[in-house]
Amino acid sequence: MFVPVRTLLTAGALVLAAAALPAQTDYRNLDDERPVRSEDAWALEFRAWEWMMPLHYARHAGRGEVEFTPEVMWGAFPNGLVGLKLPFRASDRLGEAAAAGPRLFALISLNAETPHSPGFALRADAILPGGGASGDGVLVVGKAIATRTWGRLRTHANASVTVGRAINAPEADAPGRWSASVAADWTLMRQSTLLIAELYSARPLGLDDQHWEVGAGIRRQMTPSLVLDVGAAHGLGDGGGLALTMGLSRSFSLGTPSVRGDR
What we know:
Order of helices and strands: EHEEEEEEEEEEEEEEE
Mean pLDDT: 85
Helix content: under 10%
Strand order of the largest sheet: 2-4-5-8-9-10-11-12-13-14-15-16
Largest sheet: 12 strands, antiparallel, barrel
Shape: globular
Number of helices: 1
Low-confidence stretches: 11-24
Number of strands: 16
């Protein structure tokens, strides 16, 4: 399935505008690939919703590629969420775009972080076929997440494993057979801004070599319900390449979200 890039961007902007309802401050709650790969062990508030509109550009071996991945999450149950991603990819000439298969996911926070122990969460993703850039079958990804807070400093560790054949991998944002990342963020309280640094490694599903990457970025609370994120990552060794990402997320409610404690 091929879709003009301009149509995708216009549809995303309209959806984002329609979701403009007041919600919570959320710049400290790291989402995966917003702007680094690591994510927070905290789930979305119970009954809250969140839209994301990230745009990702990567350049490797002289070729550029653009990915646009609209995403919606819902706090379906206390300390847990479900969500849907619809990724598309295109060349850096912004010609035709191809869908890279829908992705369903769920995350559950296992415990509340305490002064003596980190918060833990588990996440599962199902990457489905569908579109010109998708794989031929289903991939299932399981992830473990830990987050620890020391005042303004927070650290995160993520580890994932993928079940499925390499032929089922999509052309955009394919998971590794396994991956691991560590990240740290620092909060600038008065500016409502988060600074983030990350080290990431993954074993690809195919025959490619181990991939290492360093990344950095910021998240800034633009309004009580709107977060802007900007980041960059660079591969290490022979797999070097530059990737840039920028996105907006907006939280809203169709009911009455629960109140979550301070992070």
